[in-house]
Specification:
By secondary structure, the chain is α+β, with helices and mostly antiparallel strands. The chain is built from 14 helices and 22 strands.
Length: 483
């Protein structure tokens, strides 16, 4: 029997698992997908928010600024890309100025440090490409950008290094209360546990309703994005428009890997798995982004995508033990600023568990550091040469757009919680994230996965196990291979 089962291997489930791995507990993470961070975590704005917008009496307001302050140390320990570039909420009229003043005042209540309201001339010195009719902005220097799926992957890997187990392609179909805990029924059999933490994202309400009375609902809020090619020097800060009841508006931001991200719009959808982009919505993103900036080179778009946010009817995080289900903890409604808040939320959840079971014992051998990931493209020429001499596979470049080597892909496959699909390799190494979007390196990635996992090429999926790439040979090449 497990002490704790976490349902969901996104950034929330992964980070809570890492926090729990500091203690003498038997912990399992389950997820219906075939990789870590494959749903909301894999498609969002990748922003670590400063914390000025959520009401101070909401959990969002309580955890955002405190979570934000923890990212420097966490990302250094986990070897995750993170940059504090600051954010600007820009205004164009007196109504916007009023909104910005309210955000500033609320940020003071939330203990957000170093904020300033700045005027037109300073804004344009900081960001020359902003439209010249801008009048004011809220500048928050503690805002940052991060690799969100990299954070989830690193958190789970570090948790596994410290004893946590991971079981993917495991869908929860029912939960039964028993005297000393719960039996979780899955497509892969039963799992017995004393406690459950529900981090199931857009499906968190469904998981809750398996064991407790319904008391919240989750709607999927879809957002469409554009990604611009590297080399487009558009902005240096996260640029927000004044927020509305639909969210923080269309933003324009650099990414930690040197692209420009534009989006998202906001649309409720009934299908909780619907991540298809929509031409009309993308047009809206495009037109609205041009309110912020003089010109955006949309001819440099290399990809568009859509992601889902778990919007609850409570309009706040839900972090509590479900009524009538002792030992079942919901971490739900975890939309923005969920990513920014997770380090602080994880500690809060562990405190809840400690109070439930009457104390936790620390491990003497907990290691907070993940083994460093070698990024070949970031090394000096001397370092590259020395590495190739020692490990020749670093001399074989597989992805030309991002300069990803065979050795990096092999390492990504064989780490704890390692890659098992083309997209999983892409998330860990950026092979396929460049201008050609995997057109050149895709077949080589399939070949390496098949070789390292000892599988046939036809068994390697792009993403989920149903997303096949190859089915069979179009002709018999056996004789050609022998020759």
């Amino acid at each position: 029997m497990y002490d704790i089962v976490i349902i969901g291997a996104g950034v929330a489930g992964g980070f809570i698992a890492r926090e729990l791995s500091k203690y003498q507990l038997k912990v399992l993470i389950v997820d219906r997908q075939n990789d870590i961070g494959n749903e909301t975590t894999a498609a969002n704005s990748a922003i670590i928010h400063a914390g000025y917008d959520a009401p101070a009496d909401y959990l969002k307001g309580k955890f955002n600024a405190s979570g934000n302050a923890m990212f420097d140390i966490i990302c250094e320990e986990l070897d995750v890309p993170f940059k504090r570039i600051g954010s600007l909420v820009i205004g164009f009229n007196e109504e916007d100025r009023c909104t910005i003043q309210k955000l500033y005042d609320n940020g003071l209540k939330n203990n957000v440090p170093d904020m300033r309201i700045i005027e037109r001339d300073e804004i344009l010195r900081m960001e020359p490409n902003i439209n010249e009719n801008v009048c004011c902005a809220l500048y928050a220097p503690t805002a940052g950008i991060i690799g969100p799926w990299e954070l989830a992957i690193a958190s789970v890997e570090n948790a596994m290094d410290n004893g946590v187990e991971l079981q993917l392609e495991t869908e929860v179909v029912g939960i039964t209360k028993v005297n000393n805990g719960y039996i979780i029924n899955t497509n892969r059999g039963e799992i017995k546990t004393r406690l459950i933490i529900n981090c199931a994202g857009v499906y968190a309400d469904k998981i809750n309703n398996m064991v407790a009375e319904p008391y919240f609902s989750i709607k999927s809020r879809k957002g469409n994005y554009y990604v611009l090619d590297k080399g487009v020097n558009l902005v240096d800060h996260v640029i927000f428009q004044c927020p509305t009841d639909k969210g923080k508006g269309i933003l324009v931001t650099p990414t930690v890997h040197g692209n420009i991200l534009i989006g998202p719009d906001s649309e409720f959808v009934d299908d909780k798995d619907s991540t298809a982009t929509n031409a009309d919505n993308l047009s809206f993103v495009r037109e609205t982004a041009l309110i912020s900036l003089k010109a955006i080179p949309f001819n440099k778009v290399i990809r568009s995508f859509a992601g889902l946010r778990a919007n609850s009817n409570i309009n706040d995080f839900i972090i509590e033990e479900a009524k009538g289900a002792k030992g079942f903890i919901n971490v739900a409604g975890f939309e923005s600023p969920g990513l920014s808040s997770i380090p602080s939320v994880a500690k809060y959840v562990v405190e809840m568990i400690e109070n439930m079971i009457g104390g936790l014992k620390h491990k003497d051998n907990f290691n907070p550091r993940r083994r460093k990931v070698i990024c070949f493209n970031s090394l000096s020429e001397k370092e590259k040469g020395e590495l190739i001499k020692k490990y020749p596979m670093y001399g074989n470049v597989i992805c030309r757009c991002e300069t990803v080597t065979e050795a990096e892909i092999v390492d990504a496959i064989h780490r704890n919680g390692g890659a098992r699909s083309v997209k999983a390799v892409k998330k860990r190494t950026r092979a396929g994230f460049g201008r050609c979007q995997g057109g050149f390196c895709g077949p080589r990635v399939v070949e390496i996965l098949a070789r390292e996992l000892d599988k046939d090429w036809t068994e390697i999926p792009y993403d989920s196990s149903k997303a096949y790439i190859l089915t069979e040979e179009t002709k018999n090449n056996q004789q050609d291979r022998k020759q």
